[in-house]
Amino acid sequence: MQLSTRHLLGIKDLQPADIQLILDTATQFKEVLQRPIKKVPSLRDVTIVNLFYENSTRTRISFELAEKRLSADTINFTASGSSAAKGETLLDTVNNILSMKVDMVVMRHSASGAPHFLAQHIPAAIVNAGDGINEHPTQALLDAFSIREKLGGLAGKKVAIIGDILHSRVALSNIYLLTKMGAEVTVAGPPTLIPKYLQEAFGVNVTYQVEEALRWCDVANVLRIQLERQNQPLFSSLREYNLAFGISRRLLDSLQKDIVIMHPGPINRGVELDSDVADSRQSIILQQVENGVAVRMAVLYLLAGKRSEA
Known about the structure:
Helix 1 crosses helix 12 (285-309), helix 2 packs across helix 12 and helix 5 packs across helix 12 (285-309). This protein is α/β, with parallel strands linked by helices. It contains twelve helices and nine strands. Helix 4 links the parallel strand 3 and strand 4. Helices cover 42% and strands 15% of the residues.
């Protein structure tokens, strides 16, 4: 089996069969990660550069660990300590790196579409590790993997995506993936943080009542309020947001059913999630982090195979 694409630029470009292949391959790699020796020689001759123009902790470390577990050669690049800070263009930076014979580029950038631009101009395989407010495909894949692992599948499952939908690349990638794989999706949050086109463009349900979304769903994927992307106040205060849209233990207990709690991190504790929810038995947040390595191993492995066929 092979992916239908040479790059992972977004979930939008993947076929359901591609998603299934990545998730099934990740299952095999998760078994590898449970062994005493967690390393395989699958990408021994592959050189990967991690090109991060935007701050990241979880995603960057997860990719680095995935690359090391696959025995790839890894180069780490951060814009703040590079010639990019002196005005070097993105294309110049990447061409300089490619002259060192790099096979794959894992890229995070604050500009939506930056990985797509690179894919049109350089021969290396590109993995989008988050571009602006567009997509974050590996986060959606690890979220899907985590739901499948917990509930046994995706088709027919009810997933509520709650919080700052407007500024979230995680939300968009999750909506693409879940709808492609037969899940039902509801988005919930303040009206100012939910794009007006979502219901019509994607066929998802929209509610401005978090309790309504929680009573409906099997899984709540709770998103961080991205204050750094908001050019103007979109709600009165973090305290008011927590009171109206935050998820508390009391609210969960009132549902009289168990739902799965997810969060892509980092968590604003006491804002979108209270600590006793984030750390509860219903939370699979730490499993998401663990699963991220297996999913990224699967993506890199499959793209390397596609590249060798190109």
